[in-house]
Task: structure prediction
Amino acid sequence: MRPRVQGTEHEYTLFSRKMGSQGFDPHVLALELLRESDLHLAGEFITNGSRCYYDVGHFEVSTAETTNYYDLIRWEKAGEKILDWLRKVMEEKYVGGGTKIHAFKNNTSPDGTSYGSHENYCVARSMPFPAQYVRELVPHFTTRIIYTGAGDLIDGSYVLSPSAYLTSTVVSGETMHDTGVLNTRDEPHAEARKWRRLHVIVGDALMNETAIMLRHFATQAVLTLMEMGKLDDVPKLAKPVDDMWHNVETRNPDKWEVHLDGGAVVSPIDIQRYYLERAEPLVETERERFAFKTWEQVLDGLEKKRSRDLARKIEWLDRYYAIQEALDEKSGSEVEMMACKQYSEIGTERSLFYKRQRAGLLDRVVSDDEIMSAIREPPDDTRAYLRRKLGDMFNIDKIDWSLVVVDDGGRRRIDLPDPYATKMETSHG
Result:
């Protein structure tokens, strides 16, 4: 499958009772510490090509541009590790007395507040938007939740995907209220006549590496098929949002439903099998074969309800088991909510997710060493590499995804319109 620039944006939540009572905002302090560290490149960018900034009360990390699911996992997990390091520094230097700072990678809080966890993909501007996307991509987005959902407790119920639960329409320009399956925000961060940056908000903050892999491999495959004109016969959904709302509150695959134009009722597994079959000819490398086979195994397992094995790969399912195990030790709604949120802590010593990963209950895709190297270095096959190189060569006055202004004795503007470029003269055909 041809490379496709892609990334993620996560709003992390930091919480400390003591810091709050003293008037400190741990999100702001974490960013100040980061910009004083040797990980800082310039502006809001760090040396690994990612952007870290304050957004609506949260510490947000936008990953460097990556071209495949494998690198996406590495740089997304690197963002987790960077914030966890900052959390530990703050605990040691600014809180003291054993007071804890908690850092969460999730989508909702017990008070009902929701946070953003977005994907972005560089797609051909030539594809009609939103018409082709509604027809060919919406069926994927509304059914992939069966294996990409993070799971959460909302309004007293356990849901497969908090973002899907909070989505209200098919197409919308909003990102905080009245959100849509398709978001119309158009910030290409590249040559606008050639590329669109598809901004995906109907996705969850995921901890599980396999779930992240499936989310990006499957979506990259669907977008490639769209550009190739291979999805003309995609199943037409009669009421995608209504079906998503039904399925997101249903843990039993036998009760999942998707209504098609014409009156037929199928399973979201059937819709995903349609995409799986079309994607098979795109598979070329060993890593792509691994991801494709995992996608197939997950759909087979859901159909046969092999839940214990699937929990190794599907986050909503493993989180559900983790909550049930906590309730077996002590009952109560507070225990249930605490376990649900503790699952999403990024601190390895406190996180239920990382406790289960250490116990061998969850599958891995990348290694710890690969994540550690992504903390400092950018991907070597995208524009992130070029921004880092310019930062090492010059004093930077201004920096953005597609623009760097350097001080080289004067003030020189360098445009970076090609997200695949690793050299100044390189352009992506």
